[in-house]
User: Fold this.
Amino acid sequence: MKKTAMTISYELWGKLYLNITNKCPCACTFCLRQNDDGAYGSDPLWLEHQPSFDEVIENLKTRDLSSYKEIIFCGYGEPTSELDILLKTAEYIRSVCDTPIRLNTNGLANLIHGRKTEQDFNGLIDTVSISLNASDSEAYMAITRPKWTDKDCFAEMLSFAETMKKYVPNVILTVVDVIGEEEIAKSQAVADSIGVTLRVRPLETK
Assistant:
């Protein structure tokens, strides 16, 4: 049985993570939420209900936002699923502190909302970290298991990443280190092809 709470923000490694939604269009094979209620010892990240923007801000007002190395939209859902809350929250953070803001995303916001969303992030996000997960479309679909089985979600994600370079200073594609050296090399080639950085991260970090 899932343990629920209203853990809208949680601290790890000197950073503040924002868990603004549990909605996600993917069911990634490696996702933490497949097997646990929290992340790295946090309180449960399954939300009792979808928080409103006001609830998110009330939570943030209990934190010293300027004290963190980074503030990161990353929880038990895809943050862009609640795009309006994400953007308004980033605007609020910008208004009260200079702490860098990062978005961890699957890069499928355009499919989620049925429109181009990249320009929405202009001036609000310092770094966008997009889960590449695999070096080709077939492997990507098998790993991420998105709800759009009739779409080339791999191509959509890469298009999002490439376009985001116009609006966000740092655009990164990520893979986890368990995929092996050959797949990492292929992933590096994918990142190079669209002119963004590849980050190979340990499975246990975000």
User: Anything to note?
Assistant: The chain has one domain: 9-201. Residues 51 and 63 are 17 Å apart (CA to CA). The domain at 9-201 is CATH 3.20.20.70 (TIM Barrel).
